[in-house]
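Predict structure. Chain length: 212.
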Amino acid sequence: MPAISNSPDPATRYPLSGNDEVIFLRPFITAPYIEVGDYSYYHAAENPEAFERTNVRYGHEGMKEKLIIGRFCAVAEGATFIMGPANHRMDGPSTFPFPILGEGWADHMGLIMDLPSRGDTSVGHDVWLGYQSLVMPGVKIGHGAIVATRAVVTRDVPPYAIVAGNPARVVRFRFDESTIARLLEIAWWDRPIGWISAHIPALMAGEVADLA
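Prediction complete.
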């Protein structure tokens, strides 16, 4: 493989010179309940810097759940994550969340706080989230998966699956089972950045054997 003299700095906020529509997400994340890996980017025509406020909804400090996004993920404009605190109780006659509106109703905040958790929402490495896709609380999206435009993801997505629709369902897998197993074993996203840079042609248009 040809030597690559340099690679983008994952701490750079705007990796494309003169383009303020594409950002590396990690440098913009301040919320303690959001974790994003290196090189994962967000692309939006307006104010991509507000991702954690406009695209991660209903999260707050002190919440049980986290949003974890892996490395080398491509997040298209409008892709949104709904966090666990958005849920309302459904085991009583009403779903109205009285305590969050304050005054004397706040005395019953325990009825909100003891809602069951659906766990962390996690996006694996090398995942492509399409335009205006929606990911619901507690969903796990596997490595290498693709979430189609405006898909509503309500259940876990297997590695290297393509999902679409509302609710999102598996349309097909990108590779056969043995190839997927090999890709997960190689875990290219965990390799040194020099190795990744040298293998860009193989990663984008080659065969799994080219990654040996």
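Summary: The CA atoms of residues 39 and 72 lie 5 Å apart.
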